[in-house]
Design goal:
With about 140 residues, the protein is an alpha+beta fold. It contains four helices and six strands, in the order ββαααββαββ. The strands form three sheets. A two-stranded antiparallel sheet has the order 1-2. A two-stranded antiparallel sheet has the order 3-4. It has a two-stranded antiparallel sheet with strand order 5-6. Helix 1 packs antiparallel against helix 4. The longest helix is centred in the C-terminal third of the chain and has 34 residues. The protein is elongated. The two termini are about 20 Å apart.
Amino acid sequence: MVRSLCSSCHVQANNNALPIGALCGATFLDNAFQKKLEANIKPATWKKLSPQQQTKTIEDGWEHYIKPDFDGSDKQWEMDLPTGGRATFSKQEIVGVFKPVVSQVAALINAQIKEIAQRKDNEDGRATPQVWHGNVLEIIS
């Protein structure tokens, strides 16, 4: 669902767009990070961990640390492993996890915004006034 903003700046949570979707988002970030983690450490080390240890490692290191705190700064991101070791990731490695998923989400949002604007244009034959405020598109109705 894309929210449309009217000229009085009240947010209307209407389903203004046709269902345009794809499988993407947080779960895909998590899966991409797990693959990066497995590639970063020895495969035998990862396989030694029980499924519960694997889940806890990803939750502690990724879910509760790297994913919410990553701000694009050029630093090393480290997380502890239950085996006593550490996994280290560069900024570029973390960007490599985020970039494909965020790009896909942004493309879906942009497609919905275009669809809303086109639908509004077709309703009365007039161009729909639109104003960007930072990352927010205001569709003036």
